[in-house]
Write a sequence for this structure.
């Protein structure tokens, strides 16, 4: 089975984020592959291993540094990669523009399925999988936690997470799938994998190569960080009754919620 | 024989040689030659030479093994005859010493008799075995023979009555003690029969000196009623029994663990003379060129790794001290070595062609059981805390746990096969340079408001205080880091920290088997240290201490590294820190030796000296301490793994602390501090036992702690939770 996995490089969840205007300061940030995209890569690899045939292609839109996330995917076992490296997109791409350029890049590739993470943990839009499917004119199944494909690769039986439970969906291939946590346990790249990844082919393309121009539908105007967490307050008192009284006073007078 | 006419002596071959040509003596020579031939035949039959072929074909790298041969030889001689390591366990040590010296003395005696009777007398007709020399020799042999018997009886008492659970029980173990006891007893009975026949007669010139064979003389009383013919007949039969037994013993060596008589001294000669138990070096360029990492194939070990399996005689001392074994996990260091030997034996047989020639089987041709999984189980490989107790205990200088690290390396770097919970640890180290996966930018948050000098601002300092991940990120251990900087500042020490420029030391990655990540972390640190011209480093964590001091050298980082206990001890002794306030409520104190401080780096005294200097409570030792200390369970990356097999190591150690009667248990290692604190909570011992890091107590006693000067105050315990 041939698969395409679209990945995004995002700041590590633990890294220090500083807002600057409508964006963030990118200096000093530790960049990683979007964790949900790791499930997508892992699923593509597992399907390939199960079918004992096919290739996994990584597609990513991002600046020079995005090559690190691409190499991570290649180190895990993907075969080839397309790196769409275009300053115009990096400046302005919204989910729509991203989906458009990914669709253009994917069109030239052979695939039975396209995997993505259900959302990127930086902007949390969660729009690209659906838009990409629409632009390619194929079905999409989101929040996938289990994926099985028919031996003739004509259709897939997919379990997806729904509120309070799960739903099993059947879908003809090719189709787009967005991965939710629980789909699999992403592998830790082996050392030979890391070494081999350095030599695997990465096709670097600009938007012009793909025949698309940046056409965002949304513009970020401002970004703010959540307010810093206030230090906790320990209620003191001689006994439980005194503590309860003090707690009531604080809730009433200081916090003003009762 | 004994034609010398010497009166104070004995006739060698009394009652054995007939008149005329000494047929029996010649027969004895023939038997001796046959015994030695059978010994070598036995070696061949038991696969010794095949194993040697397998050993010499091993390809793995190793440290120097034959440098300074005379030093090595002398060390071997003193170790073998002085029982340097064997005596660490008093009971086993003493009985082995008794058996060993008993047999050495009897061998010396036999050699003297042989020299006299078979060489000097026949050639020069000189008889030196007479008079005081003979009497001395007689007494010497008797006493040492008895010593050997006492040793054997002690060994039997252990095997049949004490029955320690770590003692191996194989077929040969049931025979060996009885066999050597029989040789000694027949020897004494033969002597007694001869004495009864030749020396009890008051007319005999030897009669006044009969008690120079005290054991033989005493046994002879049993035979006082026997006729001369009966004495002679019994003597002849038993003499030959004794001789055949002794010669049979030589042959038996080839087939049994008794081969350690030869192989263990050789292994002592070949012992590593590195300051640390050597873990196979992986040169950085290897990561660019090599195709496989770690070990999953026998031949990837070094010849010495495989030779170790020959020197192991299954004594089980490594098992006795192993924290994994003692908490019912499937790791017995002895069995790792023995299983490796069995695996080697089987594979070696597999690799013999029809003509008996040995060949290395290419991986793809080999279809037998796998080394990892079949030879040594994965649960065994992951159970090790790298506490070094096995290496320290082994009288044969075998390296047990480093062999497991090679296997971990293969599993981690080639197969990505490791306990699932370790994934986050690796990612944390890779992305944020700490195993807690906390943002690297917050590495210096613990020092906020303490006015701790930063090397980037200060430019240079005499000491770099390398805090390490635990001191920087773990709430419990941040308090220790805070105590340390307060002490350093009060003592006027010229120091600075790296703040966010500091990186993980990499020890856990290295011991889990991820040498690739370890080297990346280590090289980043080395680069930073060099950029600031750092020469002296103080570490808070013994794990960082070990890798910075020893392992970074392999990667070009050579620094003078101190553990904080070395520095505090010095500052206290120099009077730069005054411990003016005794700390209340400490009660009796016990010190828990960190494996990486104690066994790895021989730092035992400084922490104890500091605790004595507190003058706040008397010091007691737990059941295991110093070189025999029991691990907290966190080493070797076990800190980051679930402990779902057997019982918990930290609880066992905490129970030892409780049993010592101490109220306070002190640590000098963040991992130990965490594990012991958890142990106290898990066992619900908070009422009886409290844990502190030594640095916290020093800060308190020096009046540097803002809080009340009582140990174990409520606020303190809350914060610890």
């Amino acid at each position: 089975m041939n698969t395409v996995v679209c990945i995004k490089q995002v700041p590590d969840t633990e890294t220090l984020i500083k807002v600057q205007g409508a964006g963030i300061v990118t200096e000093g940030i530790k960049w990683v592959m979007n964790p949900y995209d790791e499930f997508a890569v892992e699923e593509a690899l597992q399907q390939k291993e199960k079918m004992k045939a096919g290739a996994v292609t990584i597609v990513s839109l991002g600046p020079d540094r995005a090559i690190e996330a691409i190499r991570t995917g290649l180190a895990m076992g993907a075969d080839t990669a397309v790196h769409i490296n275009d300053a115009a997109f990096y400046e302005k791409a919204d989910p729509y523009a991203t989906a458009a350029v990914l669709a253009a890049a994917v069109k030239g590739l052979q695939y039975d399925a396209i995997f993505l993470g259900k959302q990127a943990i930086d902007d949390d839009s969660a729009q690209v999988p659906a838009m990409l499917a629409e632009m390619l004119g194929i079905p999409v199944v989101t929040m996938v936690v289990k994926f099985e494909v028919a031996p003739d690769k004509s259709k897939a039986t997919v379990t997806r997470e729904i509120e309070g439970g799960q739903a099993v969906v059947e879908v003809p291939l090719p189709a787009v799938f967005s991965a939710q946590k629980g789909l699999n346990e992403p592998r830790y790249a082996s050392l030979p994998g890391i070494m081999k990844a350095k030599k695997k082919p990465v096709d670097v393309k600009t938007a012009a190569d793909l025949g698309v121009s940046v056409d965002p539908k949304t513009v970020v105007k401002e970004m703010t960080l959540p307010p810093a967490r206030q230090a906790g307050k320990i209620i003191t008192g001689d006994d439980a009754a005194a503590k309860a009284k003090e707690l009531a006073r604080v809730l009433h007078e200081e916090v003003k919620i009762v | 024989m004994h034609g010398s006419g010497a009166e104070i002596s004995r006739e060698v071959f009394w009652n054995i040689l007939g008149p005329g040509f000494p047929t029996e003596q010649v027969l004895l020579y023939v038997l001796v030659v046959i015994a030695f031939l059978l010994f070598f035949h036995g070696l061949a039959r038991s696969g010794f030479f095949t194993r040697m072929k397998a050993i010499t074909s091993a390809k793995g790298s190793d440290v120097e093994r034959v440098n300074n041969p005379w030093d090595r030889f002398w060390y071997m001689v003193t170790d073998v005859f002085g029982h340097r390591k064997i005596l660490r366990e008093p009971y086993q040590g003493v009985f082995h010493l008794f058996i060993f010296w008993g047999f050495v003395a009897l061998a010396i005696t036999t050699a003297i008799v042989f020299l006299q009777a078979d060489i000097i007398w026949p050639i020069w007709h000189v008889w030196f075995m007479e008079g005081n020399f003979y009497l001395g020799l007689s007494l010497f042999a008797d006493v040492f023979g008895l010593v050997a018997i006492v040793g054997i009886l002690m060994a039997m008492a252990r095997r049949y009555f004490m029955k320690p659970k770590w003692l191996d029980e194989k077929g040969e173990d049931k025979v060996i003690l009885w066999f050597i006891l029989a040789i000694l007893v027949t020897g004494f009975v033969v002597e007694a029969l001869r004495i009864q026949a030749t020396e009890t007669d008051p007319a005999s010139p030897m009669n006044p000196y009969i008690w120079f064979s005290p054991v033989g003389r005493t046994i002879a009383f049993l035979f006082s009623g026997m006729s001369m013919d009966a004495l002679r007949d019994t003597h002849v039969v038993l003499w030959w029994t004794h001789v055949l037994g002794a010669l049979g013993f030589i042959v038996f060596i080839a087939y049994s663990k008794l081969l350690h008589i030869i192989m263990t001294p050789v292994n002592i000669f070949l012992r590593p003379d590195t300051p640390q138990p050597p873990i196979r070096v992986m040169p950085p360029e290897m990561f660019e060129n090599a195709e496989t990492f770690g070990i999953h194939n026998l031949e990837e070990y070094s010849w010495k790794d495989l030779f170790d399996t020959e020197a192991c005689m299954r004594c089980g001392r490594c098992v006795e001290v192993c924290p994994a074994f003692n908490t019912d996990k499937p790791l017995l260091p002895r069995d790792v070595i023995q299983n490796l030997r069995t695996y080697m034996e089987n594979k070696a047989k597999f690799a013999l062609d029809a003509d008996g020639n040995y060949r290395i089987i290419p991986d793809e041709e080999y279809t037998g059981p796998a080394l990892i999984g079949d030879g040594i189980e994965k649960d065994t490989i992951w159970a090790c805390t790298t506490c070094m107790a096995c290496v320290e205990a082994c009288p044969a200088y075998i390296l047990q746990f480093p062999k497991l690290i090679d296997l971990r390396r293969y599993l981690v770097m080639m197969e990505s096969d490791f306990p699932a919970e370790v994934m986050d640890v690796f990612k944390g180290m890779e992305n944020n340079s700490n195993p807690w996966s906390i943002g690297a930018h917050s590495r210096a948050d613990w020092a906020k408001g303490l006015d701790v000098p930063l090397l980037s601002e200060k430019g240079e300092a005499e000491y770099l205080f390398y805090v390490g991940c635990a001191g920087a990120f773990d709430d419990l251990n941040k308090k220790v880091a805070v105590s340390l900087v307060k002490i350093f500042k009060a003592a006027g020490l010229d120091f600075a920290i790296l703040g966010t420029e500091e990186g993980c030391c990499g020890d856990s990655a290295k011991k889990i088997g991820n040498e690739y990540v370890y080297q990346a972390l280590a090289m980043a640190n080395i680069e930073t240290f060099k950029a600031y011209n750092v020469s002296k480093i103080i570490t808070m964590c013994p794990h960082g201490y070990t890798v910075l001091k020893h392992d970074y050298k392999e990667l070009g980082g050579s620094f003078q590294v101190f553990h904080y206990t070395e520095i505090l001890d010095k500052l206290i002794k120099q009077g730069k820190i005054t411990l003016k306030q005794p700390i209340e409520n400490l009660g009796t104190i016990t010190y828990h030796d960190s494996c990486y401080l104690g066994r790895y780096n021989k730092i035992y005294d400084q922490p104890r000296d500091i605790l004595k200097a507190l003058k706040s409570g008397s010091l007691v030792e737990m059941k295991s301490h110093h070189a025999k200390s029991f691990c907290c369970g966190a080493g070797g990356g076990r800190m980051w793994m679930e402990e779902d097999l057997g019982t918990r190591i930290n609880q066992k150690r905490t129970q030892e602390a409780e049993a010592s009667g101490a109220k306070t248990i002190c640590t000098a290692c963040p991992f130990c501090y965490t594990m012991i604190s958890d142990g106290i909570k898990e066992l619900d011992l908070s009422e009886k036992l409290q844990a502190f890091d030594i640095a916290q107590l020093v800060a308190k006693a020096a009046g540097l702690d803002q809080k009340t000067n009582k140990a174990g105050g409520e606020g303190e315990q809350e914060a610890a939770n």
Observations:
- Residues 35-51 of chain A form the longest helix (17 residues).
